[in-house]
Write a structure and sequence with these properties.
It contains twelve helices and 14 strands. The strands form four sheets. It has a seven-stranded mixed sheet, sandwiched between helices. A three-stranded antiparallel sheet has the order 10-14-13. The protein has two domains: about 5-40 and about 280-385, Alpha-Beta Complex (Aspartate Aminotransferase, domain 1), CATH 3.90.1150; about 40-280, 3-Layer(aba) Sandwich (Aspartate Aminotransferase, domain 2). The protein has helices spanning about 15-20, 40-50, 65-80, 95-105, 120-130, 150-155, 180-190, 250-260, 265-280, 280-305, 330-340, 370-385, and strands at about 30, 90, 110-115, 135-140, 160-165, 195-200, 225-230, 240-245, 310, 320, 325, 345, 345-350, 360-365. By secondary structure, it is of the alpha/beta class. Bound molecules: pyridoxal-5'-phosphate. Pyridoxal-5'-phosphate binds near residues 33, 94 and 198.
């Protein structure tokens, strides 16, 4: 066989851990970020009703159903964000397809994309898929994983094309403050770089401060792309639906790639997305009560494992990202050992870039029963084997 481009691309370590765990009977997984909740009944009911519509089994327009894009525009408008449903909003097959389409649209071979790390595991591979080169910069672990513009400045080169920012960040849960985002935006604009904001956890906020969205400031429209998703806040990971916001000129280019990748997002899922938006205040409110509870339960468990892990309660998302305090031979080996011996699946910090080494990620989006069982096993494992 001819050498393939994919020889330099790996399956993300998150998915690798899930695959590994699926082969071991009785494992409790806190690995991949999958909410345990069912998609809400309001959404399911609307989807059932949509089954009788004449267009349900047909392609939609490439950017998505008009009705859905109009709804997105309206929801955004209430948040003080102005994007036109006609040519600035594209409905995607999840945010990951939005990311791939964006990178494929903007990158030329060898272009560099700066990825502050630790950050979501799929970014580096998506950059490589688009023939780009991921350039990691370290977030400040001793300052709650903050981002410094100095580090970006040091990492830039003649080949830099874009920066990917996960706001709020997975796995650190850090919410970048408005001052950082503004500084970053100015820096990117002055250098003429694209800023790709992954906002899939935008509805998860356990702090008193609102999350700042640069999309509110029209000054940066030409440089920014925003990726949003129905997967997390609406427990819709399997429906594969999200959307992109970009200025008209950029959206037109991204649309060409989106069309060649998937034609359109699944139409049935676009109906599900419309129902999600219709009930969004109620649904997000209810689900956040559950996540707050799970976060508290998980924190109480970690407090009992204080000899082994150092962690703080997350500000956003549904992950704890504790530092490993016990002697270990790397986060990957540690996660595999915990999987094989304690039968609890978690993700090694190295999955999120080199700065994630020495950490492990635990998803508390899983059921309370799974959380309690996983930590009972972990306590037994640590007390008996270390
Ligand atoms: C930060 C982040 N971005 C993107 C994704 C992918 O989301 P989607 O289901 O919208 O493709 C995930 C999924 O875990 C994620 O954590």
């Amino acid at each position: 066989m001819q050498p393939l481009r994919t020889q330099n691309i790996g399956l993300s370590l998150i998915k690798e851990m899930e695959l590994r765990g699926s082969k071991i009977p009785g494992v409790v997984s806190l690995a991949q970020g999958i909410p345990s909740f069912e998609t809400n009944e309001h959404i399911k009911k609307a989807v059932i009703e949509s089954l009788s519509l004449h267009n349900i089994g047909k392609y939609s327009l490439s950017p998505g159903l008009l009705e859905l894009r109009e709804m997105v525009e309206e929801v955004l408008r209430k948040d003080g964000i102005s994007y036109d449903h006609n040519n600035e909003i594209i409905v995607t097959a999840g945010s990951i397809e939005g990311l791939a389409a964006t990178l494929l649209a903007i990158l030329e071979k060898g272009d560099e994309v700066i990825i502050p790390n630790p950050s979501y595991a799929a970014y580096a591979e998506a950059v490589r898929v688009a023939h780009g080169v991921p350039i990691f910069i370290d977030l400040h672990k001793n300052d709650n994983w903050a981002l410094s513009i100095d580090a970006l400045e040091k990492a830039k080169s003649a080949k830099t094309k874009a920066v990917i920012i996960c706001q709020p960040n997975n796995p650190t849960s850090h919410i970048y403050p408005e001052s950082t985002i503004r500084e970053l935006a100015e820096w990117a604009k002055n250098n003429n770089y694209f800023l790709i904001f992954d906002e899939v956890y935008k509805d998860f906020n356990y702090t008193a401060k609102p999350i700042f969205h640069l999309a509110k400031d029209s000054k940066y429209r030409g440089n920014a792309v925003y990726l949003r998703s129905f997967s997390k806040a609406f427990s819709m990971t399997g429906w594969r639906v999200g959307y992109i916001l970009a200025c008209k000129e950029l959206a037109r280019e991204i649309l060409k790639v989106h069309d060649s990748l998937v034609t359109c997002a699944p139409v049935i899922s676009q109906y599900a997305a419309m129902a999600a938006l219709r009930y969004q205040d109620e649904l997000i409110n209810d689900i956040m009560i559950q996540y707050r509870k799970r976060r508290k339960i998980t924190l109480a468990h970690f407090n009992k494992l204080g000899d082994y892990f150092e962690c703080t309660a997350p500000d956003s998302g549904y992950f704890f990202f504790p530092k490993i305090l016990f002697k270990n031979s790397g986060s990957k080996k540690t996660a595999i050992e915990i999987l094989e011996k304690a039968k609890v699946n978690i993700v090694p910090g190295i999955a999120f870039g080199p700065a994630g080494e020495g950490y492990l990620r635990f998803c508390f989006g899983r059921s309370e029963e799974d959380l309690n069982e996983a930590f009972t096993r972990l306590k037994n494992y640590f007390h008996n084997s270390l």
